[in-house]
Amino acid sequence: MLSDKLKHVSRRDLLRLTKQYGITSTLLAAGSLTGFVTTTRLAEAANSTYEKRFKTEPKFTLKFGAAGFNERNLLIERAGCLQFVNDIEERTDGAIRIEFIGNNQICGQLNCVKKTQQGIIDMYAASTQNSAGGAPYLNVLDYAYMFPSRAAQYYFLYHPGSVKVLREPMRRRHNVEFLFSHAELRGIQLGLKWQDKPLVTSVTELAGTKNRVTGTQLGRIAMNLMNLNPTPIAWEETLDGLKQGLIDGAETWASAVAYANMSPVVSQVINLEFFCGTEHTAMSTKVFDSLGGELQDAVMESAYLTQVHVQAANEAALVNTVGYSDPQMPGTIFAQNGTRVSMLDEAAKREAEEMCSPEFHPAEWEQWRDRLNGWAEGMDTYKFIYDIAREIPKDTLAENVEPRRWWKG
Q1: CA separation (Å) from 10 to 5, 13, 62, 105?
Q2: Which of 74, 87, 126, 195 is the most exposed place for a label (fewest CB within 10 A)?
């Protein structure tokens, strides 16, 4: 991991370099280095990156608020933020320059989208579920068991139908240009109360437990139907909630547990895969429209290339870095922290699906389904996405989904 590569660079030297060359240039330089990294090597790389980025005067300088992300945790959850920055700056020969601001310095999971809408920042990275508070249409991704796999999620993101049911309504209703996203599916991450208990193999074993829920309204519907007592807690406060035993668990996904350093307080990862965990990057539609045709095309191409990168990189990181497999790879974050993974068999997942999905409980979903359908100009959003997600075989591996430029139809 990058943090290991930089262990010979003191925090003081790192801060000095970011002050001299800027955070973005230093992070991009650090990400490009391999092997033993010294302060001198990092300084040379940061200087080279800085000179390349600043050799021309940009037409547009954009602020990118990336919630709690930094160069270290973006190698755990491969959300693609820095890859996008690097590619768009190179692709436009510096006409677009991006100031990357992570570590919750300018916005957090719950308000990055709002600050983009307000014009405080120009683009952001955060989960769609946490962003749903400021952009309620993002709930459209969160119908329970609408996506049968991560492969289905990537297939949808590349599909032209994603423009009709996701991207266009986001532009129209929330002035946000949905660019690309990582794809995982959410389960329940149990705290230390469950450390000495047998591995959970059915959602019924969690009946009556108290679990953190994000900003998504649809996630709460599913959790209530499974008797999981959804409890709203900010992402930044979830670790303390698990550590202190205020909650039994949290609904999130595997790499989020790993990148947020929650593994020491998460004893079991229960792979319910009941709705989306999508760490997306999006841009202000007003800013996007101001770029003009040529630079808009460049943004789309960079978004596409980053989506391809994320698809491959995050699938590899889940196994090789996070430890989200059974058996686990030695030396992974979960293996080092004794975090057990319960993949659940198909019967257990089907049991959970029949407890909570719109297919089996239409009445409980009707109000939000009607609301989302209305925002999407009358289309049946659940059925539309459900059908796209099943155009590929259920056993398709996520890394084998063929990339497509979604905007070209």
Answers
A1: 12, 5, 29, 21
A2: 195
Q: Which residue pairs, CB below 8 angstroms and at least 24 apart, start in 38-47?
A: 38/8, 38/9, 39/8, 39/9, 39/10, 39/13, 42/6, 42/9, 42/13, 42/14, 42/17, 43/17, 46/17, 46/20, 46/21, 47/21
Q: Give me the DSSP letters along 268-279.
A: EEE----SEE-E
For residues 29 and 79, give the distance between their C-alpha atoms in angstroms, rounded to a whole number: 18
How wide is the angle at C-alpha 130 spanned by C-alphas 202 and 82, nearest 5°? Answer: 105
Q: Is residue 81 part of a domain?
A: yes
Do 219 and 264 share a structural domain?
Answer: yes
Quick check: is 12 in a domain? yes
Q: Is 172 exposed, middle or buried (0-12, 13-18, 19+ CB in 10 A)?
A: middle
| Amino acid letter, 396 | T
CA distance 347 to 266: 25
Give CA separation, 106 vs 37, 110, 257, 361, in Å: 29, 12, 22, 40
- Tens of pLDDT, residue by residue over 195-249, are 999 999 999 999 999 999 988 899 999 999 999 999 988 888 898 989 888 999 9
**What is the per-residue DSSP string for 297-326?**
HHHHHHHHHHHHHHHHHHHHHIIIII--SS
For residue 148, what are its two tokens? 């049968």
Contact 391, 152 (CB under 8 A): no
Give yes or no for a contact between 92 and 49, defined as CB atoms under 8 angstroms apart.
no
Report how far residue 217's alpha carbon sits from residue 72's, in angstroms, rounded to the nearest whole number: 31
Residue range 286-315, pLDDT digits in tens: 999 999 999 999 999 999 999 999 999 999
The answer on 232 and 307 residing in a single domain is no
Question: Of 341, 342, 336, which Cα lies nearest the Cα of 261?
Answer: 336
Q: How far apart are CA 118 and CA 141, in angstroms?
A: 24
**Domain containing 380: what range?**
185-276+323-401
Domain total of the chain: 3
Distance CA 158, CA 54 (A): 33
- Report the run of H or E that residue 158 belongs to, with start and end: helix 150-158
Contact 237, 311 (CB under 8 A): no
CATH (domain of 353): 3.40.190.170
